[in-house]
Amino acid sequence: MAATTPAPTRAAAAAALTLSSSPKLSHVSTVPSRRLRTATTRRWRTPRCRGKPAVEGVVDDGEDAYRESEDERKEEEAAVSGRGELGWLRLDGVGMDILSIAAPAVLALAADPIAALVDTAFVGHLGSNELAAVGVSISVFNLVSKLFNVPLLNVTTSFVAEQQAVDDDYSGTGENKLAGQRKFLPAVTTSLALAAGVGLMETAALVFGSGTLMDIIGVPMDSPVRIPAEQFLTFRAYGAPPIVVALAAQGAFRGLMDTKTPLYAVGVGSLVNAILDAIFVFPLGLGVRGAALATVTSEYMIACILLWKLNGKVVIFSGNINGAGVFRYLKSGGLLIGRTIAVLLTMTLSTSLVAREGPIPTAGHQLCLQVWLTISLLNDALALAGQALLATEYTKKNYKQVRTVLYRVLQIGGVTGMALAVILFFGFGSFSSLLTDDQAVLDIAKSGVWFVAISQPINAVAFVVDGLYYGVSDFAYAAYSMFFAGAVSSAFLLVAAPEFGLGGVWAGLVLFMSLRAVAGLWRLGSKGGPWNLILSETELRDN
């Protein structure tokens, strides 16, 4: 009897086993049972069933899957541990990640302002009226184009980074055969499709509404600035489609944490712009129209290069556009459009108040503003780096690493702002003389150096906080806080500008940036919205 007892047991055990195969190996797995379900809990369980004979060679899939997931988790934590620790400015792994993204990005971000500076340098030698006209036209162009461009750029960056983090090898089922080695990221195709439509609408609005827009900004019909301003704006309008498409492509590259390719594209485009300016403005005698034509040509070149390079990495054209993805774009983009309206209205109000002072003050203000915006791009590049890294780590629920990125990007931004303040304070006079030789304009510009320099540390915090908002998709607070800052600053401008002239305008702009910075720091300190999880004392993970 003793000799025959094990046989039925082995038969029963064999009946309870099934063979499963995979391309790599064949393994034995148990039929789902109550005992197996309890084996998938976190407590270690032996594969032997209590009170029954041992069955050797049985693989508990649930238990092994848990052990593998635990091993992967430990490897992931080991990979990020030591890359950054909380504390004052350390050039650790996180700091190097931020700088490696920000360094190429700062030049790529500077494409449009650098093109504007090149145009300003050439047009500035035509006369003060032409210089003021270009300044007004650029403000009007930004009023229309950036209304949609900035939201599309930031939303694309966050959404592409999220999809990349969820699955590094993500590809659509129907697209994979067509794509080959390229990835199919729905956020990329959706953003490019929206960009093409938005660009065409912007061109139509600028071409047919240039006169109305000049009236809105406060340039009268009898002003010597009016005719050259409309000429520049009309030609510049045809560059709207490539600008929007290029920004959407840059957002995709940012989400993929590739800021070198956009740098290459805008570097080539900026060089072409400078060469064509030198040919069109003076030798061909096209004046402000030549400056606009040179800029538009360079913008088409930038867009073509970016699309060509992006097409080598991901599928950029597809009929498979997800409706839910479009809705998410529209919802988040709608909030950021409202935010952008608040920014543009405040900046446009300041420009219109300056325009009433006359051509010379307007030209001097334009020099200060262009330098102010161009230098601030260093901080905007840091914001971009923070956004891309935060979106990736936040999606993975690596909250400890998110906190490290947050602190490090704020620290680097603060140091950068202080350095820029010192550089501008001592070097602004020499730099501004390169843009115009009109002494009256230079005198006006130099009077604004205090505001341009003092605001740099404030700008640094404000821009970096913007990137933090976008990295965790805190779009609602980003919009509502900007409404408040814009309303208060606009009210101040309306009171201070008539009384103090350019000084009142610049004081209003500094107030605007200060309110943005304070609102961002308050959001972090209050731990509202997504920051509640990130800034909690205990690191949380979704098990």
TrEMBL record:
Keyword terms = Membrane, Transmembrane, Transmembrane helix
Might you report a single GO cellular component term?
Answer: membrane
Q: Report membrane topology.
A: Multi-pass membrane protein
Q: Which InterPro entries match?
A: DinF-like, MATE_fam
In this chain, composition skew of type Basic residues spans: 34-51
Spans annotated as Disordered: 24-56
Which segments cross the bilayer?
192-217, 237-256, 263-284, 329-349, 369-393, 405-428, 448-470, 477-497, 503-522
Q: Which residues form the signal peptide?
A: none
Coiled-coil region: none
Where is it localised?
Membrane
Tell me the GO molecular function terms: antiporter activity; xenobiotic transmembrane transporter activity
Which PANTHER family does this one have?
Answer: PROTEIN DETOXIFICATION 44, CHLOROPLASTIC (PTHR42893:SF46), PROTEIN DETOXIFICATION 44, CHLOROPLASTIC-RELATED (PTHR42893)
Q: Which NCBIfam families match?
A: matE
Q: Which family does it belong to?
A: Belongs to the multi antimicrobial extrusion (MATE) (TC 2.A.66.1) family.
The protein in question is named: Protein DETOXIFICATION
Species this chain originates from = Brachypodium distachyon (Purple false brome)
| Taxonomic lineage of the native organism | Eukaryota, Viridiplantae, Streptophyta, Embryophyta, Tracheophyta
The UniProt gene name for this protein comes to: LOC100835787
